[in-house]
Structures are given as C-alpha cells and as structure tokens.
Design a protein that fits this description.
Helices cover about 25% and strands about 25% of the residues. By secondary structure, it is an alpha+beta fold.
Length: about 110
Amino acid sequence: MAVGDQAEEAVRLVAIHPVQDFNRWKQVLDDTVQNAAARGIHCRTLYRSVDDPNEYLVAVDFASRAAAEAAMLEGEALQSWLERAGVSVYPPTFLGTEVERVDFTEMGPDSG
C-alpha cells in the first residue's frame, strides 16, 4: 500500500471522557462493541488519567477509515449515548493514521 492511501489504511479513534460512574460508563461502552470484529474494530484500549481518576482515554483501532466512520455516532444518537454513559461534556476526539512508531526499548543505550 502506498503512503497516503487511506482507503484501506488502519486508523485509530481516540476520545477523552470525563466519567463520574466508571461501572455505568464501562457497561454502555461495552454494549457498543457487539460484533466488533465483523464491524472492522481490531481492538480497544482504556487508560485512566494519573491526575484525575474520573478521566479516561479510549483508543479504538479500526481496519479502515470507512469502518471507523460507520461506527461513530452523530447528532441525537451520540447525545443519547453520552447521556446513558454519564458523560456530561462532549469529549474531544481524534481520528488518525499512524505516521511513525519507534520502539526505544529495542535500541541500544548508545543509539541517541
């Protein structure tokens, strides 16, 4: 695949959610990934902020931009999901492709 060919390039959706009730939020989040693999979702990773125990980052890897856009909620459907999950503020989101990955653990101590 050529660089810049985003039609079939894997993408990652990242969102930061302010959450008051983790169990409620997690249940609603889990309910949205039914048939995940069939919908082009490769994996989901959750992170909790080290500074704020009520802030979570969600990273979801998709097979393609089309799969990600098909899974993303908009308008009233998104507002309803946020209310059910207990997210009171519209979360910032980012949809992008990987540009570079460097594994510094594989480099020797003299490599820079």
